[in-house]
Design a protein that fits this description.
This protein is an alpha+beta fold. The chain is built from ten helices and 18 strands. The strands form three sheets. Strands 5, 6, 9, 10, 11, 12, 16, 17 and 18 form a nine-stranded antiparallel sheet that branches. Strand 3, helix 5 and strand 4 form a beta-alpha-beta unit. The longest helix is centred in the N-terminal third of the chain and has 19 residues.
């Protein structure tokens, strides 16, 4: 089992390491040093940025399990790095992602987060408050957290099953009127087994189907840069207009990363009501109950999505009353209204 994190997560790394040993496994701690990544991005040539470390390739091809622990101590570490260099590096890392997911017996993986002062600052919280926020988002304050996750998974499976043969999605809200097709696509139930916390069900839209416009009011923090109030207009699935109140240059650069960057790779509904507020961290924000998110760029093949890109940027449209409300219709059936899933099991 590979445990990938920065040294800031040492207490959690040690506990996971101990549990893997007790389970009879062979833990490998892959400690990442953010300063080295920054140095590579600033000083490496194109060949060095595109190079895949053979040790990473071996781990990707041979490990049975991967646990990635986000544990940054400076979320703006890469803010001064040329985005085009980040894109080149990102394409090489996407190759590792492809290798892992194309294995005959796909390796198990999970992404989680260790609370640091940097994440707390992004969320406008003290470290103690942010840590408590993480516990709530993960249902760890419940008497039986596992039962809570099983309950959420069963509830989401109802929607996954109902959506199986549906054709069209219509999202309506303030400055938002967007239609897209999900015909022939598969929804996946994300219930805490991979992302932790989780709480969403998602698919890959038909690539040339998005028509209309959408406004994302939840701020993003991507590659060390803050981007706020993104507005996109789509024609035949492709972004043809894009504006941001903050981060316009970065948004433009990301859209030019490659051909697939202007097309949608994911549509999802957030369903974790233990997360009540944005934190500028996508692991949590995309799961906020009563929101939808759509990712520009790479699709997840297991959904039937075909878009390929080095980019996968989740952008969140808040449909709760405090954000102005909104609705999601699927084949003209109202599924979500003002942050509440109105379609319920019998």
């Amino acid at each position: 089992m590979v445990i990938a994190a920065t040294s800031a997560a040492e207490p959690l790394i040690a506990e996971v390491y101990r549990e893997v040993l007790r389970a009879g496994g062979h833990p490998v701690a892959a400690i990442r040093l953010p300063l080295l990544t920054e140095t590579l991005l600033r000083e490496g040539n194109d060949d060095q940025l595109s190079w895949i470390n053979p040790a990473d390739r071996v781990m990707t091809e041979q490990a049975d399990c991967f646990l990635t622990i986000s544990s940054e101590t400076n979320t703006r570490q890469l803010a001064g790095v040329d985005p085009s260099r980040q894109s080149l590096f990102g394409r090489a890392q996407r190759e590792l992602f492809r290798l892992r997911h194309n294995r005959p017996n796909e390796a198990r993986w999970c992404l989680t987060l260790y609370p640091t002062a940097a994440y707390a600052q992004d969320a406008d919280m003290s470290l103690a408050d942010f840590t408590e926020f993480v516990y709530e988002a993960c249902f760890l304050n419940s008497d039986d957290p596992a039962a809570r996750w099983k309950e959420l998974g069963a509830r989401q499976q109802f929607y996954v099953d109902w959506l199986a043969d549906k054709q069209n999605v219509h999202v309506v809200g303030p400055d938002t009127d967007l239609r897209l097709s999900i015909a022939g696509r598969v929804f996946r139930n994300s219930d805490g087994k991979r992302n932790f916390p989780s709480g969403e069900f998602f698919t890959g839209p038909v690539e040339d189907s998005a028509e209309g416009h959408i406004r994302y009011t939840v701020p993003s923090n991507v590659n060390g840069r803050g981007v706020q109030d993104i507005r996109l207009r789509f024609e035949a699935g492709r972004v043809v207009e894009a504006t941001a109140a903050q981060g316009q240059t970065f948004l433009d650069q990301m859209l030019e990363m490659d051909e697939g960057a202007r097309y949608l790779g994911e549509f999802a509904i957030g369903n974790n009501f233990g997360i009540q507020r944005p934190t500028r961290n996508i692991l949590f924000d995309e799961k906020i109950g009563g929101t939808v998110h759509l990712a520009l760029g790479n699709s997840y093949p297991e959904t039937g999505g075909k878009n390929v890109s080095a980019l996968h940027w989740d952008m969140i449209c808040d449909l709760r009353p405090e954000a102005g409300g909104g609705e999601v219709y699927v084949d003209d059936v109202l599924v979500l209204k003002d942050g509440k899933l109105v379609l319920q099991p019998d």
